Amino acid sequence: MTHRTITRRDFTKRAAVAIGCAAAANSASPASAQNKRTPVALQLYTVRDLTAKDFAGTLGIVAKMGYDAVEFGGYGGLAAKDMKKLLGDLGLVCAGTHEGFDRLETKLGEVIEYNRTIGNEWLVCPEMPKEWRGKGAEGFRAFAERLNVIGEKVRQAGMRLCYHNHSFEFKKADGKYLLDILLDAADPKLVGAEVDVYWVKHGGEDPAAFITRHAGRCPLIHMKDMTGGSKPTDTPVGTGILDMKGIIRVSRKAGARWFIVEQDTPKQPILGAVETSLKNMRELLKA
Questions:
Q1: Smaller CB count within 10 Å for the chain: N or C?
Q2: What is the DSSP string of 37-91?
Q3: How far apart are CA 150 and CA 108, in angstroms?
Q4: Which fold has domain 8-97+105-123+152-160+190-284?
Q5: What is the pTM of this model?
């Protein structure tokens, strides 16, 4: 595969638009924010089979489609300075990075330095380790305290830590979702939420209601649609049953900074699915 190279002037203009629009979505009134072009990112886990074969070439395809940014779930073996150059050459910015809890605990300095170099503000813990899950509410509260410790160090570095949900966090204890218990126990100044709307729905909760309940804590929204039927799976944005317009509306009001497309188990050719999601996101964001 090959990737296109754009001029430094083009990159500067695109990066300014992406970052400026993200800030506008957080700081402007809902009405004025909706009149601006909202940037859209792709979680690269979606195209993991392609990046495993050609990391730089796959990012080139993503950029050519019109995505403004990518969220990393691995760096393709690239050093930070090389990743920075690749992003610059392609006119992409970084909308976040998924780092496993073990690395956040034991290699945080290394993680922070890499992400500072590539210009990333958002570090995301993608999942709670299994040893915490079986302890119920107390396990979730204890895990929140560990995230607080990491989040303080991340904050001191000028970045923000978020936790990404699946559906197991939507079991209840004492009448509350375990994810609500985690977020209540975590300091909102130190730990935010990257809300995966598919997994919220899969867990039995309304994504818009969850985002509204945690307004100000949800800077990153994973846009992943859901098929209907008794055995739902994920599907390109705008082709499933989720109220994506409603989700976007409340996310903007709640202070979302990035809308990030993701698919875990695509049933169609992945590049077509990724392009469909972006096309539909552009239309949904106009509403």
A1: C
A2: PPPEEEEGGGGHHHHTT-HHHHHHHHHHHT--EEEES--TT--HHHHHHHHHHHT
A3: 8
A4: TIM Barrel (3.20.20)
A5: 0.87
